[in-house]
Fold:
Amino acid sequence: MSPSPTPFDPGLPLADVPGAVERELRAFFERRLAEVDAIGAPVVTAALHLSDFVLSGGKRIRPLYGWAGFVGGGGLERSAEDPKRVLRAVSALELIQACALIHDDIIDSSDTRRGRPTVHRAVEAEHRARDMGGNAAEFGRNVAILAGDLALVWADDMWRESGVSPDALARAQDPWRGMRTEVLGGQLLDITLEATGDESIELANKVNRFKTAAYTIERPLHLGAAVAGAPAATIEAFRGYGRDIGIAFQLRDDLLGVFGDSAVTGKPAGDDLREGKRTVLLSLALEALDRSDPAAAAELRAGVGSATDPSEIDRLSSIIRVSGAVEGVEKQIAELTTSGLAHLEKAGVTGPVAETLRELAIRSTARRA
Structure:
């Protein structure tokens, strides 16, 4: 007689993690939507916008790395933690991302995300369709701000109520706290660089580290390994890998923000130029053009953050392309990918976990969207 199937496979393959995360998120939202119903219909509506945003797309890369950190940290062999509860805990990382993206879209006045209206634009459209009072754009922005705040609060709820042990939560407290501060701090750095027009490559790299790399790869790995009770050397190797691969991930994003296909990325082509993003790509281009073509450098400086016409954006993209900055960024991506993988080799991380992290590194740094 065959054994009864278990509801969760502790040896969950990488390819099955996103689907398992999706199920955890759907179950979480079902519980929370029932709870907020007692507060009032407008709260349910805002929570539904949040739920739709989280469940409508995304690669679930942060939970993937959280799960890899747990497995790679010996969680399945040495830990007493229930793997299903660990998966539920790392699924909370999607709510951290939802907070960051919803607020980022408001800050950038973005109209689309993943090929759909951003949350503030969706609420704005709903306001108009219902012929509600007041300013539709302001209402959409205000509801989206609160929906993003709700995502951050619910992330903490999902993490703490996941069922992992108090000892595991205590081990993971520092990376959990650090990650939330880092992503908000990185966003503050980002908007300040835009406002000041700062061209520092060092500061642009700090934005990459704290706005993206830390909460996308480094801290999820750290969290999973901490829950597993992994030794310090393994955690340091994961963090080194996460830092380097995470920055490479953002550098790839910088290239997509200028040269990406909107049909693939879900955002307008050249969006970073339109928004005035101060990226490593832009800093390298300006640095090179100051030496080789000062007139083109002046044109690029004047256009970033002010150009809106597609032909103007195309012109700025062309200036960046001929500057040699694209090749410089590609070189950095390759070097960071190599150094990130070297952290794993140095710490002796081998077997399926090393293969998984290598696959994730390649997928993250060579992606088209």
